[in-house]
Amino acid sequence: MHKVRYFIFLLLLGILTNTDLYAQADFTIVSKDNQVGIFYDSNEPKVVEIAAKLVVNDIKNISGKEIAINDGVHKHAIIAGTINNSNLINRLVVSNKIFIDDIRGKWETYKIVLVDNPIKGIERAIVIVGSDRRATAYGLLEISRMMGVSPWEWWADVTPHIQSTISISFEPKTYGTPSVKYRGIFINDEDWGLQRWAALNYETETGDIGPKTYAKIFELMLRLRANTIWPAMHKSTKAFYHYPKSKEVADDYAIVIGSSHAEPMLSNINAEWDHQTMGEYRYDTNSKSIKTFFEKRVKETAKYDGIYTVGMRGEHDSPMIVGENDTESQVLLLENVITDQREILKKYSKKGENKPRVFVPYKEVLHYYQSGLNLPNDITLMWTDDNYGYIRQLSSPNEQKREGGAGVYYHTSYWGRPHDYLWLNSTNPVLMWEEMSKAYECQSRDIWILNCGDIKPHEYNIELFLDMAWDISSFKNSQSVLDHRKQWLAKAFGKTNSDKISSVLQKYDELSFKRRPEFMAWSEVEPVTKSKETELTQFHYGDEVMTRIEDYQQLINAVDSIQKDMLPNRFEAFFQLVYYPVIATANMNHKWLYTFKNKFVAKQGRSSSLFYKEKVLSAYNRISQETSRYNSLKNGKWNHIMNMAPRNLPVFEKPSVSTFFSENDPSLGLALEGYEMEMNDKIINSYANVLPIFNAYTKNSYYIDLFLKGQGSIKWEAKPKASWIKVSNTSGELNENKPEVRLIVTIDWDKVPRGDNKKEAPLGHDYQLIPPSFKVNSAIDFVSNDNINTVGVSVFNPQLKELNDYSEFIEDKGFVSINAENYSRKQNGKEASWQTYKGLGYSGHVTLALPRSAISQTETQDILSKSPVLEYDFYTFNFGEADINVQAIPTHALHQGNGVRCAVAVDDNKPVIVDFQTQGRSETWKRNVLKNAACQSVKQIVNKAGKHTLRIWMVDPGVMIDKILIDLGGWKKSYEFPKETKRK
């Protein structure tokens, strides 16, 4: 009882004296009459001194005031210290000024509190207490965050706003423990940006990425609360350990050094393996030399923090060489390699065998692991994505119990098959969140590394990745990611601008998700291929090429407008973080889209081929101009950092174009939506003289291109033959400056006559064959030079009573198109339900089955009784066999042996299982990752014209459905499914 009373007394004493319980308060750092001092103990590690000096410099950049460190008498102060290193902190603890038991012994955990009269002469202080050296440094730099200093203050020139008074308002709190223990980046494929910039501009004394460059990288990492780096490792860069100072700088900044899947034991095979003196790099014939190499590195790094990658691959991202080239032999050899490496670590490492070790089942190594490789239980399993953002496998429930835990190696930059994306950042942030939160859910919490290429222009995704690794609980859903970016933009460019920029970047993400800018030539690498024909259609569904051109033009217009209102001190930051990525992506798209358009119109004999040729050249030149502008920012600070043609691949070239030239007199040409060739008025009753049918239930619109043929100019006039036909423009002139015009034809549905009142309308798969009783026909005459070209207009406008109050999906031209999130109904399963994520997929939303821990259902009865189901009501005018095309996000099975499956049925048909899982680096996988879509099709019978229901059940949790197309025979070839055919 006495012990209980004493405990209560101590608790009350803590409540009365412990300033951890301060409410939100204001604290002045700099004012006209006063400025703080910063104090830390001389025993503190170097990283605390570095962080303190960064804060001092941040204060100077804002206010112009030089803040003293460990000097002078100050009314207010910032006191920082690490538990077990700081006498200052010990004194505050003993005097009950602060309480530290809640962070003592924890990993990278810090608290910031306000303390009155902490030490003699100081009235009030912000006290930062860290559980370890990094925590204290993070805590100091948290003050910079509170002052509004961006982590990208140097790396993206987010220059602080000048102010004479600096006050912060904060609620004393504890930060950490971080969600992921080791969090960091991999500098990779640095040949065209970071290495050239360092060698030719920033670190000319070494002519390389050396200690000076790494110091700036480590500063950024501290500001982002990262702690681990995989250094650059291409042949263009000398090995990290080539410069002895590099590891010392890393230790000063408390950065943990690791190495990639191809660099065992902190070695850099590309730069350090000498065939002349060391022999062939293969373990089955030259293990002694390789072990000597490993031993040297372990001795060199013994006293520093490091993470050792175990296992072995070949030189530069290739499989290891094995005499017996079968899986069993490869697995046995790899097990021997790991056994020998463990012995080396045990013998030479300062922390012995307990130093962190990771095994990275990347590419072919995953196959070895899946084939039964015996991996010691205390080694961290570091899962990888497929290089395009989709994690290939995660820990099963049994693997989640491993002592060594698990982690993830993830890409937002990549060199390799089927195509590189090294130039710009085009990884959708919501996808990255979805994959990494999935990994965290499967207990991958020990190490996260992001392959971010040259750092620039991956700034936002780097911060998002590291913020998730720091506190995954702040990212509960997809909206959290969108909100995070908007807040990030607001801090950099203000609230008003952040709303506008956020809207631009969401559209940028959507378009890049459909096709990354580096993939726009439809070429491939390894071996390199020239540009190919686009899969985008130019004559169906509104012209996918022109739609994409217009979408990117809107983004160009938007960022040009925002740039005009940008504050002068944030102009360079806006250019780097927003303007260049958007403008470069838009013009890469325009360059190729106008190339495709140029070749298409040349085949039709259009004089506009020359117009599109100029558009191609203009887009190419704009990329060049803006890249030069990037490299000249800040008086050349970033010279050589941006390269518009990494690896000089065909996609970056100036495309070849076609020019159609005719000396004939001017005449008017017409091309109608739905037809590849121009309209031929010489053929009577040609289908190519009639627009696709207008459907009263989907209220279509179609285009007609009017174009100049020959030389000179020509006037034209459009004359609809019925009052209910609407044309976007009815007259004009075509000439060399305006060689073509696109008209949009719509229907005034209040004026168009009704068709016969029939219950059923068996239209057939060819909409030109609609029975006359269901059509209303008319035409548009196009008059030029006394010539008349007549375009037929047919309208399907029946009076079907059963559709009077119907608002769901309708067949149009032989298909029904559906966005997955727009279900008519959904029903939860016993363990799972369908949920919608925003900001991902072709429609901007995807629907997925959660939780991921739910049990897969593969038996028909279990699917029907236990699985969640989506239901989509649709109406058809046709009947018979239909292809149900389902488009999903091309994720991989959660665990080995699982699939990525759903089940599909129309009406009461038996569910048919659809699996989106791909194997290895197959042609299907290549197509999927280039398109960010996995499409599968099943046959179903639509037994009558009328109302039906499509049902989609979960088979495996985590499957993400994007779009659905029910094809009754009318779908024409297109890159995307046509727009939704929902009743309008």
UniProtKB/TrEMBL annotation:
<protein>
    <submittedName>
        <fullName>Glycosyl hydrolase 115 family protein</fullName>
    </submittedName>
</protein>
<dbReference type="InterPro" id="IPR031924">
    <property type="entry name" value="GH115"/>
</dbReference>
<feature type="domain" description="Gylcosyl hydrolase 115 C-terminal">
    <location>
        <begin position="809"/>
        <end position="980"/>
    </location>
</feature>
<dbReference type="GO" id="GO:0005975">
    <property type="term" value="P:carbohydrate metabolic process"/>
</dbReference>
<dbReference type="GO" id="GO:0016787">
    <property type="term" value="F:hydrolase activity"/>
</dbReference>
<dbReference type="Pfam" id="PF15979">
    <property type="entry name" value="Glyco_hydro_115"/>
</dbReference>
<keyword id="KW-0732">Signal</keyword>
<dbReference type="InterPro" id="IPR041437">
    <property type="entry name" value="GH115_C"/>
</dbReference>
<feature type="signal peptide">
    <location>
        <begin position="1"/>
        <end position="25"/>
    </location>
</feature>
<dbReference type="Pfam" id="PF17829">
    <property type="entry name" value="GH115_C"/>
</dbReference>
<keyword id="KW-0378">Hydrolase</keyword>
<dbReference type="InterPro" id="IPR029018">
    <property type="entry name" value="Hex-like_dom2"/>
</dbReference>
<dbReference type="InterPro" id="IPR042301">
    <property type="entry name" value="GH115_sf"/>
</dbReference>
